[in-house]
Design goal:
alpha+beta, two-stranded antiparallel ribbon, about 55% helix, 60s Ribosomal Protein L30, Chain: A
Length: about 425
């Protein structure tokens, strides 16, 4: 492939992975399946049955569904039926009305909604089956948050991709694995600006979430609490604290059920926030040009997507860690760092921050994001001074791409048992 062909393919991937999503994407995947099933049933169901993979259940048990103030997969399924947009994808709940929420609460109160763990080894699986009388509809999502592989009713099969051997594999995976950080750096710095200007939208959308989290009490209120201390003279305004404050505020708003979309990265709103907001804050701090800001956002997001391609969409590894690695290289670019500094930034992040466990989505995600972007700041701080962790230490290798593959191996193979144990603990304590 020529450079132009490679760059066009990367642009396509960014268009696919950096998209609007209202609410945490795991319960939203189920809401989307339910909305599509409702469309094909053609009427309000008497009963909603849903089955999700263990990873989806883990990430949907505690997080609030936007517009409802309530947590849970059952809530997501119910509002998907009563108010979801079947054409909305990850933005399925973008026009959720108060009336739809009340109808969903009524279904829940009458115990018409059942959600259970599916018998599957797949990290990402969501199935919604709706019934009314003798009629029913069923929708299955598998592999990625909006990848519908089956739509059927008691009368007809509308879609079936279950016989395809590639239904659970990202079609872009092999291409992403053929790349390296140097190609991504060259792409972000050389591709014509008009091909990546759409990335500016990610900055605007995720900044709006950040402002919401600073203005109103959502979730854990971590970002707003930091702002309160700043305004009360208990802390000093500086780049590090502002990165943590503004990024966590966006997560507070998203996980706390704010009715605003996030721009995602690798299927996750929190990963999108983590890959975006630190770059925005740094761009303002260094007074970067619009072009430099867009190129830094582009490098951040495509690096995060590249790293995440080496491990499952959902795993025991908190993926804000690798999203923050994307933010770190974007920040490095804003400080006029070259490829050598990018290599050092990845090495420093790998040494400090990889291994944080994902124990499900919820208000506490903003604490993990705080840790992730704190590490990103420190990695950039060191790389700007020509300091990097040596490739003989731990998961760090001599090149960034080797380190990234090491992270993928850890998440894919090394943390399998941890993932099962985390879910078991969560289910046991909530009985």
């Amino acid at each position: 492939m020529t450079d132009t062909q490679i760059y066009e393919r990367i642009v396509e991937i960014l268009h696919k992975e950096v998209v609007y999503a209202t609410g945490c994407t795991e319960p939203i995947a189920l809401a989307y399946a339910a909305a599509v099933a409702r469309k094909h049933l053609g009427c309000t169901p008497d009963k909603i049955e849903a089955f999700v993979s263990p990873n989806l259940m883990k990430n949907g048990m505690a997080v609030k569904v936007p517009g409802t103030g309530l947590p849970g997969m059952d809530v997501a399924a119910a509002v998907g039926v009563t108010g979801g947009d079947p054409n909305g994808g990850l933005d399925v709940l973008h026009h959720l009305s108060a009336e739809a929420v009340e109808k969903a609460k009524n279904l829940l109160a009458k115990k018409r909604v059942l959600v259970d763990i599916a018998d599957t080894e797949l990290p990402l699986y969501a199935e919604a089956k709706l019934s009314r009388g003798n009629h029913w509809s069923r929708v299955v999502i598998q592999g990625s948050h909006t990848n519908i592989i089956r739509i059927e009713t008691d009368e007809k099969i509308f879609l079936s991709k279950e016989d395809s051997g590639s239904v659970t594999k990202d079609p872009n995976e092999d291409f992403l694995h053929s790349l390296n950080l140097k190609i991504l750096y060259n792409f972000a710095t050389a591709v014509p600006l008009n091909r990546i200007e759409f990335m500016e939208e990610a900055g605007l959308v995720n900044d709006a979430l950040s402002r919401a989290g600073l203005q109103k009490e959502y979730g854990l209120c971590l970002g707003k609490s930091m702002q309160d201390d700043l305004q009360n003279g208990l802390s000093i305004d500086n780049l590090h604290d502002r990165i943590v404050m503004e990024t966590t505020a966006a997560s507070d708003a998203r996980m706390g059920g704010a009715p605003l979309p996030a721009m995602t990265n690798a299927g996750s709103g929190d990963q999108g926030i983590t890959a975006t907001v630190p770059v925005n804050v740094t761009a303002r701090y260094v007074n970067a040009s619009r072009e430099k800001h867009i190129r830094a956002l582009t490098l951040s997001h495509i690096t995060a997507i590249y790293i995440h391609s080496f491990y499952p969409k959902l795993s025991a590894l908190c993926a804000t860690a690798t999203a923050a690695m994307g933010a770190a290289v974007g920040m490095t670019l804003l400080f006029d760092g070259g490829y050598t500094e990018l290599e050092a930034t990845i090495a420093n992040m790998t040494a400090e921050h990889i291994g944080m466990i994902c124990d499900g989505a919820g208000d506490g995600c903003s604490l993990k994001i705080a840790t992730a972007v704190d590490a990103a700041y420190r990695a950039v701080f060191l790389s700007r001074r020509g300091i990097r962790v040596n490739g003989t230490e731990g998961l760090v290798s001599n090149t960034a791409d080797e380190s990234i593959r090491n992270i993928g191996t850890l998440a894919t193979k090394g943390l399998k048992v941890a993932d099962k144990e985390v879910l078991q603990i969560m289910i046991s304590k909530n009985k």
